[in-house]
Amino acid sequence: MSGAAVATAARAIVHRTRGSAHGPITRLVSPGDLGQFLKPFVFLDLFGFTPSADHKGFGFHPHSGIATLTYMVEGQVGYEDTTGKKGVLPAGGVEWMRAGKGVWHTGAPVSDSSVQGFQLWVALPAAQETAPAESLYLSPEQLPQEGPARVLLGRYGAAQSLIPAPADMNYLAVKLKDGEHWRYTPPEGHTVGWVAVNQGRLDAGDDSGGPIGTGELAVFEESGEAIHFSARGDTAFLLGSAVKHPHELVMGYYSVHTSRAALAQGEAEIQRIGARLRQEGRLG
C-alpha cells in the first residue's frame, strides 16, 4: 500500500429543496414531508418581508407538544406570549418557546425596516410534550460561539447553549468567509443532518447537484460521518444534527405530539387559553 492519503467519501446529500412560498414565508420543512425524515426537526420556515399594510407580523397563534426556536437574521420584532413574557427580539437574537401542554405567542416588527429569520419546530420527547409552557429570549451576546458557529441549541466544542432543549440535538448558525473551509463532526448518535443557506453558496463535498444556494435546504444521508463545507462567497447557513426522534408524529394544525391522547390534552389547553384571550379582547 502506498503512503498516499486515502480520500474520504463525502457524506451524500439525499434531498434538496427550496420549499414552497406562502407570501413572505417559505416553508422548507413540514411534519407531513421532510419532517418525517429529519425528526426531531419537524418544521422550518424562512421568513422575510418589509412591513406594510399587508404584512404587519404574526398575530397570536397557538402551539402544543413542540418547542419553537425563532432566530432573527435581520431586523427586530416585538414579542409577547401567554407565559407572561413581553419585549423586543433584536437581530441575531433567539426566541425559545417550549409549548408543552399549550401556549400562544405573537410577534411583529417594531419599525419599517425589513425583517428576516427562521422558525424551527422541534418535536419534544413524551416526558416534555405536556409539561408547562416555558419561554426564553436571548440576545446575540448570550449565544456562545465556537469558531464560525453560534450555538443556538446543544453544544459545539466548548460552547454550550443556555437553552434547556432536549438532549441529543445541535442547531448552529454558521458564517464562513469566501473560500473558508469548515468541518463539522456530529456527536455520537447524531445521524440526522441538514443545512439551510440564507446567504451565499455552500459546497458540502457532494458535487452531484452543485453548491447549496441561498434559500435552499439540503438533507444529508443518515450517518455519523463528518461533513466538510467550503464557502463560495461570504456564506451564512443553519445546521441541524440530532439523534433520530423515536416517536410517530401525531399532528394537529399547530401541534405535534407522540400520541392522540397527548394531542387531545394539548388542543384542550390551547382552546382554554384562546377563550381567555378572546375575553380579554386580544384575539380578533
Description:
This protein is mainly beta and 284 residues long. The protein has one domain: Sandwich (Jelly Rolls). Helices cover 9% and strands 46% of the residues. The protein contains two helices and 23 strands. It has helices at residues 34-38, 260-279; strands at 13-17, 20-22, 25-29, 41-49, 58-63, 66-74, 77-81, 86-89, 94-98, 103-109, 115-123, 134-138, 145-146, 149-153, 155-156, 159-160, 169-176, 181-184, 192-203, 217-220, 227-242, 250-251, 256-257. Strands 1, 13, 14, 17, 18, 19, 20 and 21 form an eight-stranded antiparallel β-sheet that branches.
Compact overview of the structure:
Helices cover 9% and strands 46% of the residues. By secondary structure, it is mostly beta strands. The strands form five sheets. Strands 1, 13, 14, 17, 18, 19, 20 and 21 form an eight-stranded antiparallel β-sheet that branches.
CATH class: Mainly Beta
Q: For the residues shown, what is the average pLDDT?
A: 92
SSE order, one letter for each helix or strand: EEEHEEEEEEEEEEEEEEEEEEEEH
CATH homology-level superfamily: Jelly Rolls
Helix content: under 10%
> DSSP strand (E) fraction?
over 45%
Q: How large is the count of helical segments?
A: 2
| Total number of domains | 1
Please state the CA-atom Rg, rounded to the nearest Å: 19 Å
**Amino-to-carboxy terminus distance:** 73 Å
CATH-scheme architecture: Sandwich
Backbone shape: globular
Largest sheet: 8 strands, antiparallel
Show unreliable segments.
1-7
> Which topology does CATH recognise?
Jelly Rolls
Annotation, overall tally of beta strands: 23
| Structure classification | mainly beta
